[in-house]
Amino acid sequence: MTNVRTLLMRGVLAASTLLSLTGLASAQNAGFRTLTVTGEVPMTVALFYPTAVPARTIPMGPWQALLAPGAPAAQGQLKGLILLSHGLGGSEMNHHNLATHLAGDGYLVAALRHPGDNWEDRSMISSGRYFSERPRQVSRVLDALLASPEWGSRIPAERIGAVGHSAGAYTVLALAGGQAEPQRATQHCRTVQDDPGFCHLAKGATVADGSGKPAAPAVDAPSSGAGLVSVADACIRAVVALAPMAVVFTPESLAAIKVPVRLMMAQQDAVLNGKYHGAQVATNLPGAQTTTVASAGHFAFMAQSTMPMPSAAGDAAANPPGFDRKAYLPELERQVSSFFAAQLR
């Protein structure tokens, strides 16, 4: 795969010199399509892309998304490609508002539905392959887009970024070079009492030892294997990590990350205790641009649902008292877009 990826990227670089930004300058809307990436386990990917066709509000499950479904993509070179990874048990539409904003700015955004870890299927959580397979799924989507006759030549090779929330933030940090050590999660959940959200996210599918202490998530069962999980993807040039699941990373691997990182934590995160997760990244990666969003809960970075969204981690539609997610999300979108504009060049 490495040789194929190298040849593809050389082709993209050569082709990009022949393409202009004409067409994208006037594209202020987000087109929308779905793509199926074939393989041993097919993956559903939502593609958000720049278009000049007016968008309209489309009901999509619990969300109201502003999109132009099936619209033709604006012509010319894309500003870049952003890969988007949702949190545990989520979907490709969890962050549709951020995706449409980035598409309106000229990016192709690929938001995958993680096989085995989505709202319909959580089988991968107890498979023993969770920490390695999640990032590899994103890399497979990237490979498919680079090989695509429609998109491959339009993606600037030096402008590929990734955004992730919660388990998705783990995913993008792993792609940036963070190395997971599954035993760290097991030890963590056996020794601390104040991170129950992380230690019970498997919704009962846990590895109990009879001690009465918090059980380790089933993703950290012995089948996960010993040693480090290394799944870095050199094509990823910048990442945004939102409320990351990060206790599993080794400090040394976080310190060795070279790509720019934007880290955003939620002050009232009741799902992932920040002192074990986000702070782990901030402490060991001092070069990261770090923000803690005042009064925000864990789900503050997701699109606001129009109805309750119960999950193992609580209602994803709920907000802490005093926090206005609808007012905050446009600021999040601007900050993420500005970060990529500055770093992917």
Describe the protein.
- The protein is of the alpha/beta class.
- The chain has one domain (2-187, 223-343): Alpha/Beta hydrolase fold, catalytic domain (Rossmann fold, 3-Layer(aba) Sandwich), CATH 3.40.50.1820.
- It contains nine helices and 14 strands.
- The protein has helices spanning 2-16, 96-104, 130-146, 167-176, 182-191, 196-199, 251-255, 278-284, 325-343; strands at residues 29-37, 43-51, 56-60, 63-69, 80-85, 107-113, 160-165, 206-207, 216-217, 238-242, 261-266, 289-293, 310-311, 314-315.
- The strands form three sheets. A ten-stranded mixed beta sheet has the order 3-4-1-2-6-5-7-10-11-12, sandwiched between helices.
- α7 (251-255) links the parallel β10 (238-242) and β11 (261-266).
- α2 (96-104) packs across α9 (325-343) and α3 (130-146) packs across α4.
